[in-house]
Amino acid sequence: MPARKPPKPQPNSTAPASTKPAIVALKKSSETQPESVQEVVEPPAVPVEPPASESQPKKVSPPIKRAKATLPDVSQEAEATPNPAEPLVEGDAESVPNNAFFQAVGIIVGDVRFDENGLLSIECEQKQYPLFYAPSHKKSYEGLKKQIERTGNHTQRLLVYPRVTHFPKREQNYRIGFQLVAFEGAGKDLKQDIGLSDFEFKLCGLWQFIPVCSIPCLSVFKNLTQERITHIKNSPVENRVRFMKASHIPVLWRDAPTRPFRFNPKLDKDLQGKASFVGIIAKFLTDRDVFGFSQLYIQPSLTPPQFLKAGKKDKAEVLQNRRRLLSNKS
Predict the structure, then answer these.
(1) Which in 234, 257, 286, 319 has the greatest CB count within 10 A?
(2) pLDDT tens figures, 45-71
């Protein structure tokens, strides 16, 4: 009997038909694993995409963008934002007459009195006005006091700046005062030196309305000088804002050759127009506490001489400091 042949082995139904799918699966696993590890381990500054060509701009990574946002270019910012200590300079130095500059000065005559604290006042035509003096004119104050003590004569002729105080409420009237500049004496003739009569003033400024006064004013600003620029830069913000504050002189001028500028909040800035710079001789009217037009000696011009003006940042800082002081007191 012939020997039985061993049975032929059957193929395992669970085994893969070929090894190719296993190799493909292994290849996929080896490709995806480094990508998943790279997302966790590598810093985000490493680009996942291929680097850009020379013709394409390079992408800036998020950390570098954050650094640029928090550390701007100082030189560019300095050009865009003015220094708060730098005053605003307006006007033109070349397009105005040589004799054109901001001023408000005149002559008054009255009975000068000193109180127990050394404060001055002057009575002009039965009306009393406060009389101030600046540190730069302290010698004039001391000389005037000695002259009155020596002569016993309180009636004096004074060279003064008008000092007008306006109040926030429109219905509250302004207050007139004067700042001492010089006095007549020791052979000094103010009328001849200044070219003005008693109670006459030279007023040069911007002809305009201000919100707190129903009478149009000549706004007298500080003229531009290098000494004043240096003073402002070295002064605290409260001092420089006070120093550059304009003096708004109320003037009655019926037949003015140009209308006083009035700000209109409904108009755009480009359509507002400008205040004219003008120079006049005006008489101080004690019965009405106002200055009345007498004659014109500088024609109205839309180009004023250069003057100093406090910036909005400085004004806002001063206002904030005042509010802080008031809240601390309360």
Answers:
(1) 286
(2) 434 344 444 444 444 444 433 333 333
What span, in angstroms and rounded, lies between the C-alpha atoms of 217 and 281?
14
Single out the residue of 286, 287, 282 nearest to residue 249, CA to CA: 282
CA-derived radius of gyration, the chain: 40
* Residue 206 pLDDT: 97
Q: Mean pLDDT, to the nearest integer, of 255-279?
A: 92
In the chain, the amino acid numbered 17 is A
pLDDT, one tens digit per residue, over 4-29 is 555 555 544 444 444 444 433 433 43
- Mapped to the 3 state alphabet, what secondary structure does the chain carry? CCCCCCCCCCCCCCCCCCCHHHHHHHHHHHHHHHHHHHHHHCCCCCCCCCCCCCCCCCCCCHHHHHHHHHCCCHHHHHHHCCCCCCCEEECCCCCCCCCCCCEEEEEEEEEEEECCCCCEEEEECCEEEEEEECHHHHHHHHHHHHHHHHHCCCEEEEEEEEEEECCCCCCCCCEEEEEEEEECCCCCCHHHHHCCCCCEEEEEEEEECCCCCCCCEEEECEECCHHHHHHHHCCCHHHHHHHCCCEEEEEECCCCCCCCECCCCCCCHHHCCCCEEEEEEEEEECCCCEEEEEEEEEEEECCCCCEEECCHHHHHHHHHHHHHHHHHHC
Are the C-beta atoms of residues 89 and 228 closer than 8 Å to each other? Answer: no
Nearest to 305 by CA among 91, 87, 103, 88: 91
Q: How confident is the model at residue 95 (pLDDT cuts 50, 70, 90)?
A: low
CA end-to-end distance (rounded Å), the chain: 127
